[in-house]
Structure to design on (121 residues):
């Protein structure tokens, strides 16, 4: 009968559970790690679920070639690929912790549905 007001009341009643879920989700995001690659694996960027670059591996052959512009492009591409994968994985993780919450409640990454994430396109 009250629609959105009922959802807000439910959220207020379950605030403790929400805080606990949010804390678990935040911890989980720091542990989640994905890789993005470019140049056929010549550059690999490892990114965590908090969108932090954890490590970067560059094939030594790229350094000996001396093509700085190519190296910069490959690093940028690998980091961006890693960030896209991290965003997707983080959205799935958040959605699993947010199970049962109404859609559109201001989740990070644009949606509670793991099949959609902002920043893609």
């Amino acid at each position: 009968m009250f629609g959105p007001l009922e959802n807000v009341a439910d959220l207020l009643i379950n605030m403790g559970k929400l805080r606990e879920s949010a804390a678990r989700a935040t911890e989980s995001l720091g542990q989640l790690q994905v890789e993005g690659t470019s140049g056929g694996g010549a550059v690999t960027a490892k990114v965590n679920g908090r969108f932090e670059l954890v490590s970067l591996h560059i094939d030594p052959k790229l350094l000996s070639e001396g093509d700085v512009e190519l190296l910069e492009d490959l690093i940028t591409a690998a980091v961006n690929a890693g960030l896209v994968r991290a965003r997707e994985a983080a959205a799935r993780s958040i959605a699993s912790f947010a199970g049962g919450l109404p859609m559109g409640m201001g989740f990070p990454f644009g949606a509670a549905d793991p099949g959609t994430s902002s920043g893609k396109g």
About this structure: The radius of gyration is 19 Å. The first helix runs from residue 4 to 13. The chain has a mean pLDDT of 79.
